[in-house]
Amino acid sequence: MRVLAALSGGVDSSVAAARAVRAGHDVVGVHLALSRTRDALRSGSRGCCSREDSADAARVADVLGIPYYVWDLSEEFAEDVVADFVASYAAGETPNPCLRCNEKIKFAALLDRALALGFDAVCTGHYARLDGGVLRRSVDEGKDQSYVLSVLRPDQLAHAMFPVGDTEKPAIRAEAAALGLRTAAKPDSHDICFIPDGDTRGFLRERLGDRPGSLVDESGEVLGTHDGVHGFTVGQRKGLGLDRPAADGRPRYVLGIEPVSGTVTVGPGTALEVSTFAARSPVWCAGAPDGPFACTVQVRAHGGTAPAEVTPTTDGVRVDLAEPLRGVAPGQAVAFYRADPAGDVVLGSATILR
Amino acid sequence: MTYLDHAATTPMLPAAIAAMTEAMAHTGNASSLHSAGRRARREVEEAREAVAAAVGARPSEVLFTTGGTESDNLAVKGIFWARGAADPRRTRVLVSAIEHHAVLESAEWLVEHEGAELVLLPVDAAGRVTPEALRAALAEAPDTAALVSVMWANNEVGTVNPIRELVAVAHEFGVPIHTDAVQAVGILPIDFAACGVDALTLTGHKLGGPYGAGALLLGRDVAAVPLLHGGGQERDVRSGTLDTPSVVGLSTAVAKAVADAPQRVAALATLRDDLVARIRAIVPDATLNGDPGDGVIDGGPSRLPGNAHLSFPGCEGDSLLMLLDAQGVECSTGSACTSGVSQPSHVLLAMGATDAVARGSLRFSLGHTSTAADVDAAVEAIGAVVERARRAGAPRRRAAVQA
């Protein structure tokens, strides 16, 4: 097969490309330039497309003996990921930009272009497995990224390759070292790649400005004010900016965000527990269900799983949880995993509604 | 392999390799006073005389540098500082909008750090600076101009500027003018004294000499403040131990390239015209950017004879380049950048092209090793490549999202 290996300059995509080469594929390496203003060097574990990263990706391609190019997808990224991220916060939601990037950039803009240019598949360093078109969690449970891939349709998965999903991360690093790849000991990237200083609130304030609103309790009593709903996420406990404790002395959490009025409701942790919620825009990785089905849901990138009954509706799905979950944030995805002992097959996902 | 990227760098001439290799075996610092030093100095000075003779300069006007970027930096910053020291009102730096980044970024740096005011000289649709445009810019505030810098021939689209006319306008206002002639030396007829420019950049690796070796021709009466301080070599303007082998390689290449230019230029123009005509026969909507190349400027062609810069509507340059590379045809989407990201060319944008046209372009550049077989290979590949790149789509066209 002709395989386009997306090389971020990190260790996982390096080994993924190396494995594609070893499997006998005709591989071309491509680094995605997602920002027009790129920093020369990485700062710690943050950021993912500095010039240092593209240089590292180029060196990996050298060692693997494959052609290497940089493709500028910065406009697509700015529109489909960054603008979506900002708009989502402005609407009182909590977006997941990595998931959006997979949906709109890596397995849309990049994959479409790759297919048109004569490639058969796009290969990435995601920790997930693909067995005959079936998306599964990776062997390394701590690194599993199937959640952020759960937005992919069967036609996208048909042209995807995740060669590192069957291996634990330490073995991937060892493999990179054995191959002489200089990314072997590079720190993992964390946080959001387009907010390299990690200051998400500052990033949003720059783009959205201050939009003052009120902090209220469940009864509607005003407890304080804030600079904008984009500073809050459902389930958040720290940084609420309240100067007096709750009457019962218990910690308070963000329960809900109303973007139009700018009202943020806070209350006790127990009020965060959700037993049923709706979600929109479902995507079915393995084909649409023909009716209600039992599964395990995951409501955020790490943790937050529970058994549930999912019922397709006219405009999305309804999720009825077998046990209540906290931190079910509008804007995040709910991913559905098959209800079998392994529980690792991804059935699809949808976007959690308020 | 079909190498059609001579404007990026061109193979070293065998004579230059031989001369340089021989010089590498010699020991001697050209500044030393003993016999080995004298020998090195002699090699350097003979090289200086050879370069001077080839480009119509005096030996004392040849300052050896590490190449185009250093020469451009030295000219723009050095002359700016010297002019400002003589009269602090001179803060305007007039450079054309199609300059190489070595000039543009030097000028921008002066704006950010030295209180300069940047005046970007507009170009016409062919990418040419007209004497009228320069006159208008100078006349706006004649006493405040520090210097003018306009490249002799553009590296991307190959358009040749009317340097003599521009020199006349600049000198009418008493303002020194520098020209980046990196793409022109060894191709176009260049006589430093006769054309009257105050400073001229040339570099080795664009004309068959070594990388990392170039020169700034600096008129004897033109003052420039040095960037590098040290032992006072090169008229006290450019300190540093002279790189004798590189200087020898450079001078050998300059002499040979200039001597062979008339025949080579005719051959290159024939190959280039054939390439353009055959590509346009296969891809009828492909357009040639820049000057058509049938005019005469200062006794030479109005377009670099080895340059074919084409736009392919509906295609992204990156896609075209990758697909041609896979077919063994090597060309360029514009000027390469360290991170490998091709930005829409500032040259094409200055010429009035849209962002999408600018990004859907390829530069084929022929040089002294190019043959009819190279043209055949490119022509053979182009049809399928364009068709496939078109399927992959053009760059998204819309106002940039300010994220």
* CATH top level class name of the largest domain in chain A: Alpha Beta
| Assembly level | heterodimer
Poorly predicted tracts of residues of chain A:
41-48
Order of helices and strands of chain B: EHHEHEHEHEHEHEEHEEEEHEHHEH
Q: CATH H level of the largest domain in chain A: which superfamily? A: HUPs
Figure out the total of helices of chain A: 8
Structural class of chain B: alpha/beta
- Annotated CATH topology of the largest domain in chain A: Rossmann fold
**In the residues of chain A, how many domains can be counted?**
3
What's the alpha carbon Rg of chain B, rounded to whole Å? 21 Å
Which structural class is indicated by helix and strand composition of chain A?
alpha/beta
Please identify the top-level CATH class of the largest domain in chain B.
Answer: Alpha Beta
Characterize the largest beta sheet of chain A: strand count, sense, and whether it forms a barrel. Answer: 6 strands, antiparallel, barrel
Q: Quickly count the domains of chain B.
A: 2
CATH architecture verdict of the largest domain in chain B? 3-Layer(aba) Sandwich
Distance between the termini of chain B: 41 Å
Can you describe this structure?
The complex is a heterodimer of chains A (354) and B (403). With 354 residues, chain A is of the alpha/beta class. Chain A has three domains: 2-178, HUPs (Rossmann fold), CATH 3.40.50; 210-269, SH3 type barrels (Roll); 273-352, Elongation Factor Tu (Ef-tu), domain 3. Chain A has helices at residues 11-22, 51-64, 74-90, 97-116, 146-149, 154-157, 169-178, 200-208, and strands at residues 2-6, 26-33, 68-72, 121-123, 128-131, 134-137, 160-161, 213-216, 222-226, 252-258, 263-268, 274-284, 293-298, 305-313, 316-325, 333-338, 346-352. In chain A, strands 12-15-14-13-16-17 form a six-stranded antiparallel β-barrel. Chain A has a five-stranded parallel beta sheet with strand order 3-2-1-4-7, sandwiched between helices. In chain A, strands 9-8-11-10 form a four-stranded mixed beta sheet, with no helix packed on it. Chain A is globular, with a radius of gyration of 21 Å. Chain B is built from twelve helices and 14 strands. In chain B, the strands form four sheets. Chain B has a seven-stranded mixed beta sheet with strand order 2-8-7-6-5-3-4, sandwiched between helices. In chain B, helix 1 runs antiparallel to helix 8 (244-282) and helix 5 packs parallel to helix 6. The longest helix of chain B has 39 residues, at 244-282. The radius of gyration of chain B is 21 Å and the shape is globular. At the A-B interface, strand 2, helix 2, strand 3, helix 3 and helix 4 of A face helix 9 and helix 12 of B. Chain B: Pfam families: Aminotran_5. Chain B: Its cofactor is pyridoxal 5'-phosphate. Chain B: Belongs to the class-V pyridoxal-phosphate-dependent aminotransferase family. NifS/IscS subfamily. Chain B: It is an enzyme of class 2 (transferase).
